[in-house]
Design goal:
The complex is a heterodimer of chains A (about 100) and B (about 230). By secondary structure, chain A is mostly helical. Chain A has helices at about 1-25, 25-30, 30-55, 65-80, 85-100, and strands at about 55, 60. Chain B is mostly helical and about 230 residues long. The chains are: A mainly alpha (about 100), B mainly alpha (about 230).
Chain lengths: ~100, ~230
């Protein structure tokens, strides 16, 4: 039940940006300073999620099969491989390492 | 006519490509502890990939205790849609009620395809065609992914934990094209990891968000200093 409330509230929170943006006068958000903050925020949250999901397990800093999988993901990202292939390759790498060790 | 067709082809293929990654979202969401319905409602109502991955990522780490942090992360991650909406408003010229629908379809892909066109009619067409196509594929393939994810009893055996982190690597990497942005990414990454043992689950990602605000303020101050 709590999770249902969270799903709805978070969805409305994300929608609030979309509907706010479509009703605001253009000059408010088309300020370069504001759009730079938005871009920094997006990058920071994504990089933070890479850190937490790749190197933390149950609040402890952990190095495991995810590390080589993420290094592979970085190499594929540099090579501009499509998103879905990067995700699949990383999963396969981690799964294979766990299976053979 | 040929041109309109090729724009439609672009819109549908962008929808398919994006939809494919809805499979990974569906599977990861179920692995994080949401049920199939909650997963599908997220794709229908939230309909913003970055925010959805952030929401289930924080829940995966912290469970129900991390709900406030999950909501806050999804909300902050969604901020760029507001900027897209501002850019699209003068192009779309929607009436009030139409805006309710148009706003929901305002995401990376629909805005990207629209802004790649020059004529207003094609911009409008690109926005709606891409928005609708992404919406349809994203939701269908989320359901498929959620059903597939339900068959995997231990997600880490399938490398789904690594897949979740790799998804963000793939999303963030193309954005790292100037040095202040790279500084933000590295600091946020380090802060999120090393704060994890000391704060409740979900909070490290919010601290990473604070890094963005701090670097932004520092860059502004330095630029103002340079003007004097």
């Amino acid at each position: 039940m709590e999770l249902w409330v969270a799903v709805i509230v978070a969805s409305l929170a994300v929608y609030s940006w979309k509907i706010l943006g479509s009703n605001l006068p253009e000059r408010v958000l088309n300020n370069p300073k504001v759009s730079r903050l938005a871009s920094f925020l997006t990058v920071a949250l994504m990089a933070g999620l890479v850190g937490v999901q790749g190197f933390v397990d149950n609040r402890e800093i952990t190095l495991d099969a995810r590390l080589p999988a993420l290094l592979l993901a970085v190499v594929l990202a540099i090579l501009r491989v499509p998103f879905i292939l990067i995700v699949l390759a990383a999963a396969a790498m981690a799964a294979a390492l766990r299976f053979f060790w | 006519m040929a041109k309109a067709n090729s724009l439609l082809v672009t819109s549908v293929s962008v929808g398919l490509a994006t939809g494919l990654y809805g499979i990974s979202f569906g599977a990861l969401s179920v692995a994080a502890g949401l049920d199939v319905w909650q997963t599908c409602v997220l794709s229908l109502l939230m309909f913003s990939g970055g925010s959805q991955f952030a929401f289930v990522g924080v829940i995966a780490g912290g469970g129900l205790a991390a709900i406030p942090a999950a909501i806050a992360s999804a909300w902050m991650m969604g901020v760029r849609n507001g900027f897209y909406a501002v850019a699209m408003a003068p192009i779309l010229q929607l009436r009030r009620l139409q805006r309710v629908v148009g706003a929901q379809l305002t995401i990376d892909e629909s805005t990207g395809v629209a802004l790649s066109q020059e004529e207003n009619s094609k911009q409008k067409f690109g926005f709606w065609a891409t928005g609708i196509s992404v919406f349809v594929f994203w939701n269908l393939l989320t359901l498929l992914g959620a059903l597939l994810g339900g068959f995997m009893s231990d997600p880490s055996v399938w490398g789904l934990d690594a897949a979740a982190a790799a998804a963000f690597v793939a999303l963030v990497w193309p954005r790292l094209n100037d040095s202040p942005t790279r500084v933000v990414a590295i600091l946020a990454f380090v802060v999120a990891i090393f704060s994890s043992p000391y704060v409740p689950q979900g909070v490290p990602v919010l601290l990473a968000g604070l890094v963005a605000v701090a670097v932004w303020a520092a860059v502004l101050l330095r630029e103002q200093g340079g003007e004097r």
